[in-house]
Amino acid sequence: MEQEIVINAHHVTMEFRRAQHPAGSLKELLLHRRERPQPFRALEDVSFAVGRGQVVGLVGANGSGKSTLLKIIAGALTPTAGWVEVDREKVQLLTLGTGFDMELTGRENLFLNGALIGRSRAFLEAHYGEIVSFAQLEGFMDQPVKTYSAGMVSRLGFAIATAGDAPEILILDEVLSVGDMFFRKKSEARIRQLLHGGSTVLLVSHSPGVIRENCTQALWLDRGKLRAVGEPKEVCAAYEKSQ
Q: Which domain holds residue 140?
């Protein structure tokens, strides 16, 4: 039986423009005001398909285009060329600190962030205890999020995004790389639950070990180009060899 494709990227290219000489003063701004911003290609002709229920890992060095690709899939960015076929109403994108107001408390941010990813207030109230417990934030929910560590913010975001019924498509951008070893194991166990529940997961991690242990397929991005697609062990080995 042919596997249903839920994410299909066709020749995706993303180009940004940046100033060749960033202005550090008014004089520099006036001197370079006639210069045209230089194009920077974050992604170039990237094509791949993801089947329902797969856990796909993205590996690559900083600046390789991983986060840009995830934002295009989620609909946060529109590619310069190419397109992605995906039902974005079923996509949840989780990046560190996304949708959080650092001045608000953890409790307030739970409802704010939950609303931003489509959770109803009734759902969040019903799962409040589960979310706080999974995030290990008992006793901290009435403190401003600006007092949280990066790991605490990540745990709260992950717990909100994965509470209750599994989302159909979950995108995790470097979330499993934050936090202590115990929470990483909890997060990886939750990812495996999502897999068994039929969720499709896209996972970015700097750790090839995380990709090897948790993913059914891997993509290697290198300077915006797709270098390899295939079995996680083989793709990660090729990536590590290139470093």
A: 106-163
